[in-house]
Amino acid sequence: MGKRFFLFFLAFFQFSILFSQSWNVVSLDQIENKGIRDIIPEKYVIYNFDDEMMKTILWSSPKESEKDVANSDQIINVGLPDGKTEKFKVVEYYMMEPELALQYPDIRTFYGVSISDQLKSIRIDYTLQGFRAVISSLDEGKYYIDYFQRDDKQIRIVYSKKEFKKG
Length: 167
What we know:
Blueprint: H1 2-20, E1 24-26, E2 45-48, H2 51-59, E3 75-79, E4 85-93, H3 98-103, E5 108-114, E6 120-127, E7 130-137, E8 141-147, E9 155-160
Antiparallel strand pairs: 1-2, 2-9, 3-4, 4-5, 5-6, 6-7, 7-8, 8-9
């Protein structure tokens, strides 16, 4: 009985985390001007999401040295440039030297693979600006998830590489 309850609780907890990771499409007129826009692609989707929830989930991800990403039980949901979302299994990996990582504990990096397409991967960095990511797909190319404007951790802009031209 205790094992069943634990498994039920674990499944419920994972479902509630996934459910709370909502990426809501918003329009420009719904966004409060908080900072400078550095990235303005030709075509994009704007999302409102809970950055603190994402940080909490990422910070509890297993380490790449301890668990293969394909076997990770940590799942995140991210917005795509078509207005849909996709789930990825993630692990934390270390990009900085240990001494540098101690100096900057709020900067971490993560790697993941799509649950629905094992050939689609995600690279994530979490910094003082919050969650950012690059999604790579053999079929679809690269997608970027960046902050919409500086000093706004709740709004993200999602676009494909082909839609961004430096100007």
